[in-house]
Amino acid sequence: MTPHRALSPAGLLVALAVACAPLASPAASPSGTVVAVTKFEGTGTDPYKGNSLTTLLMGDLLTAGQPCKMRLVEWARRGDVLKEIEFGQSPYADKATAPKPGQLLQPDVFIDGSVSTTATSMTWSVQAREASTGAVLAEDKGTGKANDIVSISEGIGKRLAKKLCKKNAGYRIFGRMDDATINGVVCGGLEKPFTATSPEVIGSWKFTPTSESAGSFSYGAKNVGGATGSGSGTYTVIAGSEGPVRIQLAGKGSIHSPVGTFSAEITESLTLTPIPSCERVGDR
User: Fold this and answer.
1) Tens digit of pLDDT for each residue in 192-203?
2) Do 117 and 125 meet the contact criterion of CB atoms below 8 Å apart?
3) Could you tell me if 46 and 153 lie in one domain?
4) Which of 43, 207, 213, 235 is the most buried (most CB within 10 A)?
């Protein structure tokens, strides 16, 4: 550790004669976007066309989304899966082989839509929405022959996949403050609050945006070489030619030790890497 950083808030481990855990490297980029197709509403002479398009589109999206490793989760039967997980925790199931709660993949994108039919035609309106905000990422509308639903679904799948494969689900945050790493995932854009952690010092970071390009931050650390740490300040999102590339911090942090409080400026920069999936799990 360089002398001029000896009192840095998140990395004062050497100065306090405590060894730090090995530095973690940024986690590998997750697999493709997780997409859930909800049950489409069907109206008109053949309301079951809604169910048919739901089923067909799941397979067509999976095929068309292979280049970007798109993953499909069945949402219409989510309730059945949750019941199976719940039963697995009962006294009547083998806990060793039963699925564990909280491990279901959560979608990055929901696809909903409607189908209206006449005796000879079907009209569809399909939207792909960001799971965390509900914002429309892509949509597809049209009218075709009712008996051409197979080719219609294939076309919708190709067009939506082409658009969704270009979208990012969010960003992975990575940086260092001396001997501690800063890791986090932002789902969606940078206009909503997001968090990060520093596992080596049991630290947590909170970022509160005032816009997509700026905001304030605060952090707390429970074990910086046996002492606690805290800090706060502002941040600026630095943009590149294809979007945000890093977060520049500006503030002050402190170590609160038995021998006194030591402070230093925070000037670190955090890298933002686009990711195709937030890799969220849970039961809902």
Assistant:
1) 999 999 999 999
2) no
3) yes
4) 235
- What are the phi and psi torsion angles at 167 (to 5°)? -95, 150
Give the span between the Cα atoms of 166 and 188, in whole angstroms: 14
Phi and psi, residue 56, nearest 5°: -65, -40
User: Which of 111, 140, 164 is the C-terminal boundary of a domain?
Assistant: 164
Same domain, 182 and 142: no
User: pTM, whole model, 2 decimals?
Assistant: 0.77
Q: Are residues 40 and 149 in the same domain?
A: yes
Rounded CA gap, 128 and 122, in Å?
A: 20
Indicate whether 144 and 48 sit together in one domain.
yes
Domain boundary among 164, 187, 217: 164
Q: Containing domain of residue 271, as a range?
A: 169-275
Phi, psi of 78 (to 5 degrees): -60, -40
Question: Does residue 149 fall inside a structural domain?
Answer: yes
Cβ pair 276, 33 in contact under 8 A = yes
Residues of the chain with pLDDT under 70: 1-30, 102, 284
108 alpha carbon, distance to own chain's centre: 7
